[in-house]
Amino acid sequence: MKSIKNNESNFLFNFIDEKVSDYIEPTREGTPRGEPIGLSAQKYMAVLVSLFNTRSVKRKAELSKISYGLLRKWRTEDQFREVFKRTEIELAERIENYITSEIEREFKSRDEFVRGVTGEFEWANLIPVYNIARELTPGVIDGLAYAEKRASEAIKRCVDDDKAAFLGRIANEIEGLIAFAQTGEIRARVDIDSTMALVSFARDIIKSKEKLSNQDRRQLALSLTGVLNDLKHLAHIERRK
Predict the structure, then answer these.
(1) Residue 5 predicted with pLDDT over 80
(2) Which helix or strand (DSSP H or E) is residue 130 part of?
(3) Residues 177, 133: contact at Cβ < 8 Å?
(4) Which helix (H) or strand (E) holds 23?
(5) How far is 100 from 81, CA to CA, in rounded Å?
(6) pLDDT digits (tens, 9 = 90+) for 102-150
(7) What is the DSSP string of 134-198?
(8) Which of 23, 1, 14 is nearest to 51 (CA)?
(9) Residues 34, 59: contact at Cβ < 8 Å?
């Protein structure tokens, strides 16, 4: 089964290519009489292509290299629909895991920067999942909404402030991605109170110490960068109005 050609790195294309590579087409041999064999390679490709939410059924048929009428027929079959639903859940989980790993990388980078382990820190790169947001099907969005709900509920049971902040960031980013997928608008994620708290924290560091240690400087740089990112985000929202 051939993959879909794509010239640029794309989260959804990469997911589809991986599923194509891993798929083993079932055969009648060893399958009890009367039980369904499973999807052919071509039909499974049609399932994967159906993940492109903005493509018309006609375009999906072209990408699957089948006729428009055949794809319409397949889409009414229970087995096709069940596999598609499972694949939507898998894609939602893949997106959730990516967001979680990126935020985890950011938190680790920030901690190492403050402790002086590294000279720079890195923010989570969520551009790959935002680039495919408009392609997300309702089933994928439902899966992400469930992930956001799990993270939000976990915060209520959390007794560790750092863990709660980590989970809160995950829930916030997933919620923002869902909003963008549904409306095409980047949600104003900036919390003015949090931004003011960052400014106050930076001010207190400067006021309370005659001489700043290297760790103080790093913490100050981190806080001011957070404020700068918030202001950039607000400016971006204003320009889109």
Answers:
(1) no
(2) helix 127-131
(3) yes
(4) none
(5) 29
(6) 999 988 988 887 777 877 778 888 889 988 999 999 999 999 999 999 9
(7) GG--HHHHHHHHHHHHHHHHHHHH---HHHHHHHHHHHHHHHHHHHHHHHS-------HHHHHHH
(8) 14
(9) no
CA distance 36 to 78: 11
Contact 220, 201 (CB under 8 A): no
The end-to-end CA distance of the chain, in Å, is 45
116: left (phi over 0), alpha (psi -120 to 50) or beta: left
**In what helix (H) or strand (E) does residue 225 lie, and over which residues does it extend?**
helix 214-240
Type of residue at 211: K
25-38 per-position pLDDT tens digit: 887 665 666 566 78
- Indicate whether 94 pLDDT > 70: yes
State the Rg of the chain over Cα. Answer: 23
Distance CA 194, CA 189 (A): 11
Confidence of residue 218 (pLDDT cuts 50, 70, 90): confident
* C-alpha to C-alpha distance for 62 and 42, rounded to whole angstroms: 12
- Classify residue 137 by burial, with Cβ atoms within 10 Å: 0-12, 13-18, 19+: buried
Query: One-letter amino acid identity for 34?
Result: G
Domain ranges of the chain: 11-84, 188-241
Structure tokens belonging to residue 210: 């005659």
Output the pTM of the full model: 0.79
Task: Please give the pLDDT value at position 122.
Answer: 81
Whose tokens are 């006609």? That residue is 58
CA pair distance 5, 13, nearest whole angstrom: 9
